[in-house]
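Check these lines:
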Amino acid sequence: GCKLIFGTSYGFMEPMNELASAYPDVMFAHGTGYLSNDKNFNNYFGRIYQARYLAGIAAGLKTVSGKIGYVAAYGTELAETSSGINAFALGAQSVNPDAVVYVKTLNSWYDPANETAYAEALIEMGCDVIAQHCDTANPQIAAEKAGVWGCGYNSDMTKDAPKAHLTAPIWNWGVYYTAATKAAAEGKWAEFGNYYKGIAEGLVDVSPLSDNCVEGTQERIDAVKGLFKDGSWDVFSGVKLSFDEAGKVVKTNADLVDNAGKVIVAAGGPSVEDSVITGTMNYFVAGVGLK
């Protein structure tokens, strides 16, 4: 008898699409993915790449080796993962231009054993910060065990690895669920439509910085948050961010280039379309490599 059903995992997309057709009087909403209709099936997600950019700043300031490891669920085959990896790398490069992000992909949303093993392999390569797009805190625990640093995902993982964790991109799903249920209750579900918000609306953020972060990290993150909030800049554009000696943001027109040397956005150009970020981004930016 439920009239509003949320699907909270990528793998629920196709079944929900089919059920929306079979049950036109039920409202369906799918988190992540890309399918929807203009009737009873909406899609919701957020600009988590913005939060990943902020986490990248913390990582870029912390790394000594300039090598940052990233345990990823998937790679360039999914826009969700490639956009997150790219944003994280660009954030790190904003404070450490020579930083390189090395990616190992699980090809799974949940693989605890390899989440640990891949983190350990990246550490053996010389990566001294370990980031992740996977479900457990295992990469952070591996980082602490090895005496290096890390950025988690989905929740504040400082409690899991207090000597290693810096910060984590996190979700505040209540922002969406409140708006969605209100629209449903008021009979405005169809016009509510798909939902894609970010830092400005409070849907995504980073967890409180731990004491492991270097001095000045919070100020730089706050400065970039301000740009997201006022809409004056976004990550995948032809404008690169850096910081002066006082920690103030500096904007420079520069090509956004992938790791094969192809120009994605020309210097000074606007950010790529949301449809690219959510659906067709199938490349890594310069400074990102698979291992």
In short: The chain is about 35% helix and 20% strand. The longest strand covers residues 41-46. The chain has a mean pLDDT of 96. The two ends are 48 Å apart (CA to CA).
